[in-house]
Amino acid sequence: MITAGTVDHVPAPPTSLTDTTALVTGATDGLGRAVAGELAAAGAMVLIHGRDADRVRASEREIARIAGTERVRSYLADFASLEEVQHMADELLARERRLDVLVNNAGIGTTVPGDGERMLSADGHELRFAVNYLAGYALTRRLLPLLRASAPARIVNVSSAGQAAIDFDDVMLERGYSGTRAYCQSKLAQILFTFDLADELAGTGVTATCLHPATYMPTKIVSSPVSSLEEGVSATLRLAADPSLEGVSGKYFSGTRESDADPQAHDRDARRRLGETSHTLAGAGA
Predict the structure, then answer these.
(1) Mean pLDDT of all residues in the chain?
(2) Residues 103 and 35 sit within 8 Å (Cβ to Cβ)
């Protein structure tokens, strides 16, 4: 069984991934760490991301040990800082020749950190919007040329069934803040971004999908688990590596089933406004 602190084995993706390079963000714990381990076990060159150097090194060693491979490299960045995100992207672009899979998994929950209090990122943005959405937006934008050059390639955004419509008059939730609303808004933003990416990348060989992997998995941001971590790992691996989903793009999945996202995800004006807001907040480097 997979637990939040280990990378014990679950069934590997249904094909060898020896020619695949995959980046998994938030790969020092829980879902991200387990997904990275399974990709490595299937033969992929796995790039893991985390924000704490000691935990990243420990995860790198653990994944290599369990997967029986040294094909693991690591990258550091605190996703509460867009400067660190850009530095990580630049380092990756300088070191890696290809990128076939990008799993945007890094994120924070409704109460940790801050115990539900409104917090700001290093750039002065509401923290959950910054870490859960904006950092992934900036990283993906910066890595798109490499993904295009590596096509066919896949972008998988780990979102949630917890979704709340974005208030474009108060994106940073300065009024009536709650950690739950902040989290749910950031997760819906990921879905809007996924749908826009799919339209933008149509015909390039790069696909974009998103998913709610499982309900309340046993990770460090969940106090009362409902689903097993294995369920979330399997659902995420399916989007990242299952050959039957080659070419599938612009879809939201709940587990392994295609599902309906919040109606705002299908509002092209809302997606346009989010894109403009994100470009402004992330700066010219994204």
Answers:
(1) 91
(2) yes
Task: Indicate if the pLDDT at residue 153 is higher than 70.
Answer: yes
CB 162 within 8 A of CB 221: no
Active-site residue identified among 75, 133, 137, 183: 183
- pLDDT the model gives residue 219: 57
Please say whether the dihedral angle defined by the alpha carbons of residues 211, 216, 218 and 221, taken in this order, is positive or negative: positive
Active site residue 183: yes
Query: CA torsion 12→6→114→183, rounded to 10°?
Result: 10
153-158 and 101-104 as β-strands: parallel, antiparallel, unpaired? parallel
Residue with tokens 């997606």: 271
Residue 266, pLDDT > 80, answer yes
User: pTM above the 0.85 mark?
Assistant: yes
Mean pLDDT to the nearest integer, 46-67: 95
Phi, psi of 258 (to 5 degrees): -65, 135
Is residue 27 within 8 A of residue 55, CB to CB? The reply is no
| Domains assigned to the chain | 21-282 (3.40.50.720)
Distance CA 198, CA 189 (A): 14
The two structure tokens encoding residue 12: 């590997």
Longest dimension (CA), the chain: 51
Does the CA dihedral 219-261-132-88 come out positive or negative? Answer: positive
3-state SS of 171-238?
CCCCCCCCHHHHHHHHHHHHHHHHHHHHHHCCCCCEEEEEEECCCCCCCCCCCCCCCCHHHHHHHHHH
What's the whole-number mean pLDDT along residues 233-261? 97
